[in-house]
Amino acid sequence: MTLIEEAKNYVRNSVQVPAMRSELAQSLKNKVKNSNVWLSHFKRVGDLLSYLKRFKVSNDDPIYHELKKHELLTFEDIVPEFEKKFGPWANDSTRVSDFIIGEVYDAYDILIFSKTYDTRAGGMFVIEADGKPAAVVIKASLEGGSYPNAWIKEHTRLKYYLKSIGTNFGEHFKTNAAILNNHEIPILTFVRNTNEGPFVFRGIFGFSTIVRELNNSKYFELELATKQPEAVVSESAYVSRELAKAVVESLNSAQSKRLARLAAAPKKPGSIRVVTTAYTRNPDVIGEVLFRALGKCEGCKESAPFARKSDGTPYLEVHHRILLADGGDDTVENALALCPNCHRKQHYG
Asked: Which of 79, 156, 179, 304 has a CA-to-CA distance to 280 between 20 and 30 Å?
């Protein structure tokens, strides 16, 4: 059992299971069921502890007093024991670096990170440090609602409506003010095309401008930050795809604009951490395929272009006909020995 499952089981067995077996009114049991839904979504002990600590003993809290009347433990009661059991992992909470550009996250993942435990809470959340806004998290749906958000430039520039109450897009509202009063604040941006379902993390965006429309609605123009603090992507192919699209756009723009961008661009490239899936390949498959090839590319039939510096053997690369990432088998029958040129052709030709 993993540590987080052990922690969730402790909470479940201490509070929720006894409550569901008690003579509590069904309306209160329904609230217990809802807390169990939240419990199932926690992935880190520190996040779960933060959730438990949000519950405070209140003289006017009927749920707390009803549970105590039935001699049941509450979340407030178990915090000290939880901290004794899991104290070393109390700071193991979701971080910005846990979100991977291009990966999918549900609303619970985003709300738990934002420490907002209400699925009706809207689409903007402020992350505070020392009582001051340190970051903003947004969930952007591109369809549905009276004020649909939209890409101005796909994946790099976003039209995102301010938080509103009815038709009041108050610039003094906490989330709106966090951006308007600090144009440098990082904005963690999660986007989905429809009004339902999970979101895709699109990276750290920043404030560009605010547009005030004639119908009194207001939206931010947000731009992908050139520097992605702690940002990671799920696969190197994502980086390649995004670069390929950007190159096409560059070639299609006027040379004068391209040269102007080059003049203003930093000479040192930014960096981004890549998290990818590796496969534990069978060395005998590689050995047998190379033996079968006898030093000749099985694509163009030409001899290997050079010999390996390490052992002098002909340099060929073993390629899977059906990629492992697509469910292909790691077998001799599914593999070819190719020269670097033919290997690239298989992937990009």
From this structure: 304
Task: Give the span between the Cα atoms of 291 and 325, in whole angstroms.
Answer: 25
C-alpha span between 14 and 72 (Å, rounded): 9
The per-residue pLDDT for 262 is 85
The answer to the question of residue 296 being in a domain is yes
- CA pair distance 28, 36, nearest whole angstrom: 13
Q: What is the C-alpha separation between 259 and 250, in angstroms, rounded?
A: 10
Same domain, 102 and 214: yes
> How many H-runs (helices) and E-runs (strands) does the chain carry?
12, 13
State yes or no: pLDDT of 167 exceeds 60. yes
Query: What are phi and psi for residue 264, nearest 5 degrees?
Result: -95, -10
Task: Report DSSP state, residue 88.
Answer: G
Whether this model's pTM surpasses 0.70: no
User: Pick from 135, 110, 105, 134: which is nearest to 122 by CA?
Assistant: 110
What pLDDT score was predicted for residue 144? Answer: 75
Identify the domain containing residue 172 by its residue range: 96-233
Indicate whether 126 belongs to any domain: yes
The count of structural domains within the chain is 4
Q: Say how many C-beta atoms besides its own lie within 10 A of residue 230's C-beta.
A: 13
Tell me whether residue 278 is in a domain: no
Q: Is the dihedral of CA 239, 242, 245, 249 positive or negative?
A: negative
* Residues 106, 110, 116, 120, Cα dihedral to 10°: -40
**Closest to 14 (Cα-Cα) out of 120, 95, 85, 65:** 85
Q: β-pairing, 273-274 with 150-153? A: unpaired
Task: Please calculate the CA angle 8-275-201 and round it to the nearest 5 degrees.
Answer: 70
Query: Using CB atoms within 10 A of its CB, is residue 157 exposed (0-12), middle (13-18) or buried (19+)?
Result: middle
